[in-house]
Amino acid sequence: MEHPKPDPVGPDQESVWSYPRPPSAEVTSRHVVVEVGGRTIADTRRAIRVCETSHPPVYYVPRDDIADGVLERAPGTSLCEWKGAAAYWDVVVDGRRVPAAGWSYERPAHGYEHLAGAVALYPGRVDRASVDGEAVRPQPGDFYGGWITDEVVGPFKGGPASLWW
């Protein structure tokens, strides 16, 4: 299947079609905040920004920057050909459970060791996620957890027609 034509890139934007494969994973000082139930559950300026061809960036928050007691291990696992086996996490705030709200690589593959101890949260499963104050829009579909902001352009993998991109 042929890849789609990348959307035009404007000033201060980047195309997800210029992201590498295998993905990059770099620490960023961007201000990443996640909220559930009116409570800030994650707040960091040392997230790991993972960028992969056709996907919006994913921000992994160091566990030290996630509120105590809000993560509970969820059932299930999946496998990333690059990063390894993923574990899933429920978020629990004031008795409200958000199933499989995030994932982590507890023993990441070679080259991604710095992801150990960090959790990526799905922006579509939490009440609000932001990068530098900008509200994030979730990546299409229910599997991928990319964070769409005005600085990234697609088209983005995740919709029904993108299965084989």
Describe this structure as you would to a colleague.
The protein is an all-beta fold and 165 residues long. The protein has no helices and 15 strands. The strands form four sheets. It has a seven-stranded antiparallel β-sheet, with no helix packed on it. A four-stranded antiparallel β-sheet has the order 4-3-11-12, with no helix packed on it. The model has no long low-confidence stretch (mean pLDDT 96).
What is the gist of this entry?
The protein is mostly beta strands. The chain has strands at residues 14-15, 24-27, 32-36, 39-44, 48-51, 58-62, 71-80, 84-93, 96-104, 118-121, 128-131, 134-135, 137-138, 147-148, 152-153. A hairpin with a 3-residue loop joins β7 (71-80) and β8 (84-93).
Elements, N to C (H/E): EEEEEEEEEEEEEEE
Largest sheet: 7 strands, antiparallel
> Which residues sit in consecutive blocks of at least 5 with pLDDT less than 50?
none
What is the overall silhouette? globular
Portion in strands = 35-45%
Assembly annotation: single chain
Largest sheet, spatial ordering of strands: 2-5-6-10-9-8-7
| Overall residue-averaged pLDDT value | 96
How far is the first residue's CA from the last residue's CA? 7 Å
Write down the Rg: 15 Å
Number of strands: 15
Structural class comes to: mainly beta
Query: How many H/I helical runs?
Result: 0
The helix fraction, in percent, is under 10%
